[in-house]
Design a protein that fits this description.
688 residues; mainly alpha; five-stranded mixed β-sheet; two-stranded antiparallel sheet; 28 helices; 9 strands; elongated; disordered C terminus; transmembrane helix; SLC26A/SulP_dom; membrane; transmembrane; secondary active sulfate transmembrane transporter activity
């Protein structure tokens, strides 16, 4: 290659795959089998360095704690830990309502899982604790097994327990199973499973969850008293209960909620606009909570206005699988954002292990499902948090509330917690703004978003997630089965080939078609490709040509067709013109003294559809696998394995680049004559 300014000049032979292989020897790599991997692992199991690496992988704290910069990081972690801890206390209390549990149990969720994550987690900025969507999913299980009205489910261990104790037992049990699922997935190294939850699917799911949360908090904001509803159409039944009982609204709860929401929204907007000038965000949730507690206690809201307050603080499943997936997916997505921002890596499998152990440990101490909350993590990062030291300090703040000052929160009206929950839904509800962008740029993702949202809204979050995942996989199948194929053309004066519809200055030799296949080739899309490839049925044309040849032979034998100065036709009369056997075999001109040009006028009563191409180039550069095996192997290897090549279809028809193929065609067919072998290739492809 010789560079010349912004041009380059390459002088090399015209290669086919065969000639390229002759000049450039290829290294034969042995593929690792499961047996070889097992032997390799056994051989290396006693390696001391590998043991140390395994310990560092299992306990990431070993890796970063020894590099902890006390002078530069400690102050930021302290400020961040205090700020995040105050918010964690309030969110723990508020999200307990979503889980249909007494508020105090949310404090356990903000403490125990965070301590375990400090040792096992790989993210330095994630704030572990209650997450509204997971809390709502836990609440759905709790209210189904221990409903507000009616007897609880017949479960061993419920005997002699109050309703509150039964609900705590259910929440802890489902959290333990959720953690077990996460732990098993981490041990099986299936952290990649989160990749199947696309950003579009998660957006539609979390938006529907936000609507669920908003509706579930209406009874606290309005001060209404009716049993919780779960299952399909729960949101419809809940709204029906709200509107049928709306005349019983507690005015004190409603006014308090409106004032709280207005103040928090205004101050949060100020925090967003002036975040570069404020040393730390204004802790408005903490401020309004302290004020609300004081006012409620001073004016005795509980007795004077019949306001439901937090009350006495606590001293010291099938549904679990979707919870495990959702909790991990949200936490991993948030962690990945901050790891990219601060230039460090996170391990998806280790995160599964960390959350699995955290949830199992927390469930043993009566906490419910833990993940992360976006707003809480944002506070931990924006206030100067550098490591999980901030997470531990926030957990210590929660511990102080649990063991020492929790009684000060007992007069807090539950409507205040409901209002804080609703205000924190702003970010998720604003995801509706994505719809116009998706509609304009990607209709398939738009459909995935809408289907996931509607299914999650009306069928419940667990079934909605399954439906959304099914819809997403269906769109992937459709995109693979019906990809956007294109005909390529040479950009004049270059060796570059692009879609012929996108450019004006192109070169297309007559009779040459370059067809780009943009996806794997397998059983579901081979017919689609065949139809798109040539626009006609190659086998049908082949049969008509062979049938026409039989007629020509018969006419020559019977003297109905005369050709002078040529060899005599074969006298073999065993071929029956009406027989259908052999019509799908390659064209055989034996017994005919001429080469038939199928695009010219043929003898009477002989009609064959014309084929206006003499050379067909298939661009396999985007094909990752062939046939149903779905193995990502080299195309040439796979074609050899499938016995694609024979005496007529040779490896020499393959070329390393499109330009090599085009130059070969122009060299062999300068007059754009007809090429029968290419037609045979088309017929062979149609049989795949």
């Amino acid at each position: 290659m010789q560079p010349s300014g912004r041009h380059y000049v390459v002088v090399r032979p015209l290669f086919s795959e065969d000639s390229f292989a002759e000049q450039h020897e290829r290294i034969n790599r042995t593929r690792k089998t499961l047996r070889k991997l097992c032997l390799y692992c056994l051989h290396c199991s006693c390696d001391t360095n590998r043991a140390k690496n395994a310990a560092r992988s299992l306990l990431p704290i070993i890796g970063w704690i020894k590099n902890y910069n006390i002078k530069e990081w400690l102050l930021g972690d302290i400020v961040s830990g205090i700020s995040t801890g105050l918010v964690a206390v309030l969110q723990g209390l508020a999200f307990s309502l979503l889980a249909s549990l007494p508020p105090g149990y949310g404090l356990y969720t903000a403490f125990f899982p965070a301590i375990i994550y400090f040792f096992l987690g790989t993210s330095r900025h994630l704030s572990v604790g209650a997450f509204p969507i997971l809390s709502l999913m836990v609440g759905a299980v709790v209210t189904r097994l221990v409903p507000d009205g009616g007897p609880p489910a017949n479960i061993t261990g419920f005997e002699g327990l109050s309703m509150e104790q039964q609900r705590v037992l259910v929440a802890s049990s489902v959290t333990f199973v959720m953690g077990a699922f996460q732990l098993i997935m981490g041990m099986l190294q299936v952290g990649f499973i989160v990749m199947y939850l696309s950003e579009t699917l998660v957006s539609g799911f979390t938006t529907a969850a936000a609507v669920h949360i908003l509706v579930s908090q209406l009874r606290f904001v309005l001060g209404l008293d009716f049993p919780g509803v779960n299952g399909p159409l729960a949101i419809v039944y809940t709204l029906e209960n709200v509107f049928s009982d709306i005349t019983n609204t507690n005015v004190a709860d409603l006014v308090t909620s409106i004032v709280i929401m207005a103040l928090v929204l205004i101050v949060k907007e100020i925090n967003d606009r002036f975040k570069s000038k404020l040393p730390v965000p204004i802790p408005i949730e903490v401020i309004v909570t302290v004020i609300a507690c004081g006012v409620s206690y001073a004016f005795n809201f509980e007795k004077r206005f019949n306001v439901v307050v937090v009350g006495e603080m606590v001293d010291g499943a099938v549904e679990a699988f979707p919870m495990a997936i959702v909790g991990f997916a949200v936490a991993f997505s948030v962690a990945k954002v901050y790891s990219v921002k601060h230039d460090y890596t996170i391990d998806g499998n280790q995160e599964l292990l960390a959350f699995g152990v955290s949830n199992m440990f927390g469930a043993s101490f009566r906490s419910f499902a833990a993940s992360t909350a976006l707003s809480r993590t944002a506070i931990q990062e924006s206030t100067g948090g550098k490591t999980q030291i901030a997470g531990v300090l926030s957990a210590m703040m929660v511990l102080i509330v649990i063991v020492a000052v929790g009684f000060l929160l007992e007069p807090l009206p539950r409507s205040v917690l409901g209002a804080l929950v609703i205000v924190n839904l702003k970010g998720m509800l604003m995801q509706f703004r994505e719809l116009p962008f998706l509609w304009k740029n990607d209709r398939t993702d738009f459909v995935t978003w809408v289907v996931t949202f509607v299914a999650s809204l009306f069928l419940g979050l667990d079934l909605g997630l399954a439906v959304g995942l099914g819809a997403e996989l269906f769109t992937v199948v459709c995109r693979t089965q019906f990809p956007r194929c294109s005909l390529l053309a040479n950009i004049t004066g270059t060796d570059i080939y692009r879609d012929r519809k996108d450019y004006n200055s192109i070169y297309e030799p007559e009779g040459v078609k370059i067809f780009k296949i943009p996806s794997p080739i397998f059983f579901a899309n081979i017919d689609f490709f065949r139809d798109k490839l040539v626009g006609f049925s190659p086998l049908k044309v082949l049969k008509k040509r062979n049938k026409a040849l039989r007629k020509i032979r018969k006419m020559l034998r019977n003297g109905e067709l005369e050709i002078s100065d040529v060899r005599q036709p074969s006298t073999d009369t065993s071929e029956d013109n009406n027989s259908m056997e052999g019509l799908d075999q390659p064209i055989d001109f034996s017994g005919i003294p001429i080469q038939v040009n199928w695009n010219t006028e043929l003898p009477a009563n002989i009609s064959v559809p014309p084929v206006n191409i003499h050379s067909l180039v298939l661009d396999f550069s985007a094909v990752s696998f062939l046939d149903i095996s779905a193995l990502k192997v080299y195309i040439m290897e796979k074609l050899h394995q499938c016995s694609f090549f024979d005496d007529e279809i040779k490896t020499s028809i393959f070329y390393p680049t499109l330009h090599d193929a085009m130059l070969h065609i122009l060299e062999k067919h300068p007059d754009h004559g007809e090429l029968e072998k290419v037609f045979t290739v088309i017929c062979k492809l149609s049989r795949l």
